[in-house]
């Protein structure tokens, strides 16, 4: 006698595209309707810009294993290049300015990526740090980049695409969201391709990658170029959609470390990790400020907030490196598996 059993407790397996589609439907269809001005201006716009910058740095550091501390320099290059293309090239559409700005950032990334052909690890990080100081110095020294503005601060142009103006918090959010979605999709396809596998091979064992025929030098420079392109476009979003101004001080060394912390906390070699890390980095200061004001009142001013943020963030990074080196992505996957097992056993 053959017993036929059915496992009705097994959790349904959804196609991988379902969750991203649902998230996009919510982001495009629900958030613009229910979101407040504060949500767009203080949370979603910086979150989108930093997430995209994290995606770019994760391609270079997480997948290709090349450490960089010059992310803010590439953001600045993208922002100022887009501003000058939009200002000086008559008739050039905004999309064209953004693409060209990304290419300028990619070119600068290639130049400062050349030391990766000889240097590794800490020494490479120090060499990329030169990009941070050089780009910020050049933007401050030569007023041409800021259209001869006495203060060096310039207003970002309006966001016109195909005759439509993306104005207000909702419009700028939709503009930023669309750019982030397109580049994130392309980045996901890239890391899933043979090029992405080449990045991982070089990260894991450069000598073995060279033996099996991977062009190591070309692949390293490609990683720098692609990473810098994405980070440069993130700089355009940061300046044009979020801050609405373009200034060198907005792309200082702290910004580079902030993007590095995003991929460490979120998870290296993970596209999702860039978004989870950026969400924590953006929401954390706001939550800390509310909690500090509730517990300490007027004593918890901006100076105390900044110091407390650095201390707590540093402690979080140390905890993640010790307890969960793979970041929030691994933590989320573990929680999801446990919930799935609990659901199946119920």
Distance between the termini: 29 Å
What is the percent of helical residues?
Answer: over 70%
Q: What is the number of helical segments per DSSP (H or I, 4+ residues)?
A: 14
The Rg value, from CA coordinates, equals 22 Å
Number of strands: 4
Determine the mean pLDDT. 89
Q: How do the strands line up in the largest sheet? A: 1-4
Q: Provide the succession of SSEs.
A: HHHHHHEEEHHHHEHHHH
Shape: globular
Strand content: under 5%
Detail the poorly predicted runs: 1-11
Largest sheet: 2 strands, antiparallel
Q: What features would you describe in this structure?
A:
The protein is mostly helical. It is built from 14 helices and four strands. It has helices at residues 18-29, 31-34, 37-63, 71-88, 94-113, 121-141, 168-191, 194-204, 206-211, 216-243, 253-266, 271-296, 302-323, 327-345, and strands spanning 154-155, 160-161, 164-165, 245-246. Strands 1-4 form a two-stranded antiparallel ribbon. It has a two-stranded antiparallel sheet with strand order 2-3. Helix 3 crosses helix 12 (271-296).
